[in-house]
Amino acid sequence: MSDTVVSPDFAKIDIETIDPELAIKLLVHHAARINASDIFLLTCDTYVEVTLRHWGRMEHIRNIPLDQGKTWISYLKAMAAMDIAERRRPQDGRWLFDDQGVLLDLRLNILPTLYGEDLTIRLLDRNSGLMSVDQIGLSRHDRQEIMAMIQATSGLILVTGPTGTGKTTTLYACLQYLNDGKRKINTLEDPIEFSINGLRQSQVHTKIGIDFPELLRGVMRQQPDVIMVGEIRDHETATTAVRAANSGHLVFATMHSPIAAGAVQSMLSLGVSAHFLASSLRGVISQRLVRQLDPETRVRYDLGDATDTFADIKHLLNDDQGDHFFGPDLTAANDGYIGRAAIFEIMTVNGELRRAITGRNTAHDLETIAKKHGMLDFRQSALLKVAQGTTSMEEVFKNVPTEFLGLDDG
Question: Does domain 10-125 have CATH number 3.30.450.90?
Fold first, then answer.
């Protein structure tokens, strides 16, 4: 693809004069170049809307004529080995896309809607999508907590948070650290997002009855040292994961829970024995993503009269931090942000927490105990990122609900 064809702005390309194959190449190239995570082709009554998800935000690119949009969707369905004639059922597909020498793993999903089919494309860069434990944005305190968890020989480690908050990235970072050739590591995924040498990776295929419980029962007979379960969704997966952790395996799993302590209640609600959960659970990593301030353009503000803003995390700050914060330069081309950073809440399970789990104490009780033993909750972790100039207060308020920031009392 020549430089004269690839425009720096897809919205300005004259797509009326190019065929669907080149148009899609340009669209995917543009999305990959700006590090967008998703491409959406949304069918409306008279046009198809092209939208990207960029650093967690939806960005409208352009509208294209309805006929042209349907042609694009048909072309993408064909490239992803979907049934082109089927327009009434959801479909999933995959396309390994060569973007000028960079291999992108495109995961496609089709959904029938009122005016036609909507197409979502998740972009996975197989060359650069993986991060190490030192690259996922952990504070010194949180890194120590996670390293203590993952270096154990057995136990259950849960990674929680809403969809799209980087749980898989954190899991892969932990597995890469453990992937030293001295352990047998099996993963159960839906789908397999990155192929990693040294890991034995298996994918869920619900259409033929191969789901997480089925795979987990099978992998237990493969004599693994470490097991990663893509998501705990049901009673059988939850109880089998706990049983595996209690029988000498180190088990990683994701699930949806708003805060670290809430993961315990989520597991108990799936019918897991409180006693066995308490004895196996090593820790919970809960996380959110916020946009990261551009260090070249961020604007500094003094605290003024609010000198106690960072009081309870002062001991975690450097000498030159804690008397100011930063905000975005909204006049900058990137609105003052570049990339995203994670905010973590990491609950390490100790003896007191095990007794509380066995007694089925509330999430609030568990959080209180965890904080007494040094856990940084979302409020403290968010303030730490703000004091360090990594993100802004506005981003924290947008992405971490106020009930988890301790700001809605009274």
Answer: yes
Provide the residue type at 286 as one letter.
S
Residue spans per domain, the chain: 10-125, 133-404
Q: Which two tokens stand for residue 30?
A: 């543009």
Biggest CA-to-CA distance, the chain:
69
Most confident of 8-17, 90-99, 312-321, 342-351: 342-351
Tokens 């300005």: give the residue.
12
Note whether 10-125 and 133-404 share their fold: no
CA dihedral 75, 79, 81, 83 (to 10 degrees): 0
The pLDDT tens digits of the residues spanning 303-350 come to 888 888 899 899 999 988 999 999 999 999 888 999 899 999 999 999
Residues 6+ away with beta carbon under 8 Å from 50: 10, 27, 39, 40, 41, 42, 60, 61, 62, 63, 64
Pick the CATH number of 133-404 from 3.40.50.1820, 3.40.50.300, 3.60.15.10, 3.30.300.30: 3.40.50.300
pTM of this structure: 0.85
Q: What does the pLDDT read at residue 99? A: 87
**Whether the Cβ atoms of residue 39 and residue 27 lie closer than 8 Å to each other:** yes
Amino acid found at 155: G
pLDDT tier at 7, thresholds 50, 70, 90: very low
